Amino acid sequence: MVPNLLSIAGSDPSGGAGVQADLKTFAALGCHGMAAITALTAQNSLGVRAIHPTPPDFLAAQIDALFDDINVAAVKIGMIGNADNARLIAARLKARRPAFVVLDPVLAASSGDDLGGAGLAREIMSTLLPLVDLITPNAPEAARMTGLPEATDIDGARRLARALIDAGARAVLVKGGHVPGEMARDLLIDSGGEAIFAAPWIETRNTHGTGCALSSAIAARVAHGDTLVEAIRAAKDYLSGALANSDDFHVGAGAGPLNHFWRLWPRD
Predict the structure, then answer these.
(1) Does 148 map to a domain?
(2) Which is the catalytic residue, given 209, 236, 254, 256?
(3) Tens of pLDDT along 6-23?
(4) Any catalytic annotation for residue 210?
């Protein structure tokens, strides 16, 4: 049976990130994707021009409409937009109790534009953190949420992850894309201990939506029955292929999208 996955995230009209990237990733990994939109954005490969958050009552209506009718195997949460929507999502998670939830705490776009709004990081820490099965911040996001210095090595990533565990997280994957090193190393800490997932750096300018794709791929693999460690390993392999095959895309003058369907589309 094909799992039904729900993305609760913002819309990216350029197709590189947000629910558009999530739905592509779900489809590429054999899942049926659905979306509850937290915010509309006006953006392209160069940056974000405007954000229009969804009113909390309408966001609740989207989420409830799906859960009332459809068996949701896993939920991926991306850009939330503001603290009000974070509180609303927390309330719906408590009411609906989905089997698996991964939170990619999108606080800024790849271009550096702020996507969180005042108070969102604090609301994630106090309200959402204990309700999700996995949180996947990059090093700057983890530093912003915890108030600790940004990681410059794996020990710094470990301190950030431990701080999030101490704050109530069940499992933390600190992504290594912003941490210098010979390899890109993501660090997982959960009740089972610690695991490091290393991958070679891939030279490409098409990195828009990398974090969206990774967290969505983890959700997809968990929905297919993988353990968390197996899901992260498979998601990393998928992401590496999506990056390595992305240079076929020429979308805008800035950071372009990944090739989400690299396993399905033949190359010339």
Answers:
(1) yes
(2) 209
(3) 999 999 999 999 999 999
(4) yes
